[in-house]
Design goal:
The chain is an alpha+beta fold. The protein is about 25% helix and about 30% strand. Strand 17 (about 275-285) and strand 18 (about 290-295) form a beta hairpin.
């Protein structure tokens, strides 16, 4: 059992703009969310000596009073090995004043979850401890590889979020789907909805769902498969996977929306995960058009060589 002492923290320019509750949750790692909100209700959290609401957005120079708290089970930081750090360093494609772009390895989630104690963000923070601010700007599925942006300051994080929300950012993917893709099919715009329940939540096609648009372009035809480039302006959960499956041409290797028998056959060609790769992202940052590219990884290139 650990009893922390009261702290007064000055908000830096890099921390400004975020909600106070999110700031506290990061400062008080291991403290349950319910306990943090209880601090607000009891007036234990103060900003510039005054009571404050959780949704308040902190400003540079604000003095935040963080109350003492008793921790029975402190959540330990995950152990990040040197090999994890080396893999992350090799995955970095762009490292500038505003952001990191990595070619995310398949199998590594973007953040820790119930099945893994660490993900991309935890490894990046362990690899680059000198970074005062580093946050995921968007997400990729665990078994999807490719272009992932991490912001080094809150201003660029908000720019990326705005571009994604306003659909001015365009993301491109490569995927290998089952069968011959029909030439007449280029756009799929069926709305999508999350369906929760059971062991694993899924996304389904539903007229009452949210709008979604995927543009498919044939890159190369094979005997029983098609390599497609997909551009999306919306970013619904599992969007490309569901749109491809709904067309009758599921992504090969996709265990959730794909075809079990076809997946079993393609696995003999060396495919060990869903053939989906985030190849690039286009958006405007700091009034400059930026294009971030991520080459197809060796495991997917080798599959293409064998089919």
């Amino acid at each position: 059992m650990i009893r922390t002492s009261v702290r007064e923290v000055s908000i830096s320019a890099a921390e400004a703009g975020q909600r106070l509750d999110n700031f506290l949750l990061r400062e008080l790692k291991g403290v349950p969310r319910s306990r943090v909100y209880k601090m607000f209700r009891k007036g234990e959290v103060r900003v510039n000596k005054g009571r404050i609401k959780p949704h308040y957005k902190v400003k540079t120079g604000d003095i935040v009073r963080i109350p003492p708290v008793t921790l029975d089970n402190v959540k330990k930081d995950p152990y990040i090995t040197d090999s994890n750090k080396e893999l992350m360093k090799k995955s970095v494609l762009v490292d500038d004043a505003d952001l990191l772009q990595i070619n995310k390895p398949a199998g590594l989630p973007v953040h820790a979850g119930s099945k893994l104690s660490f993900g991309v963000i935890e490894v990046v923070r362990a690899t680059y401890p000198e970074l005062e601010f580093i946050e995921l700007a968007h997400r990729l599925d665990r078994y999807t590889s490719g272009c992932l942006l991490l912001a080094k300051n809150r201003a660029i994080l908000q720019e990326i979020h705005t571009a994604l929300r306003d659909h001015t950012a365009v993301k491109h993917y490569f995927c290998l789907v089952a069968g011959k893709w029909p030439q007449e099919l280029s756009e799929i715009t069926t709305p999508l909805q999350r369906e929760r329940g059971g062991k694993q939540s899924k996304t389904i096609v539903s007229e009452s769902g949210k709008s979604a648009k995927s543009v498919f372009t044939l890159v190369q035809s094979f005997a029983n498969a098609s390599l497609m480039k997909v551009s999306i302006h919306t970013g619904r959960t599992h969007q490309i996977r569901v749109h491809a499956a709904s067309s009758g041409h599921p992504i090969l290797g996709d265990e959730l929306y794909g075809n079990h028998e076809l997946n079993k056959k393609i696995s003999k060609k060396g495919l060990t995960r869903q053939f989906l790769h985030a190849s690039s992202m286009e958006l405007v940052l700091n009034n400059e058009n930026r294009i971030f590219n991520a080459p197809l990884p060796d495991d997917l290139n080798s599959v293409l060589d064998r089919i």
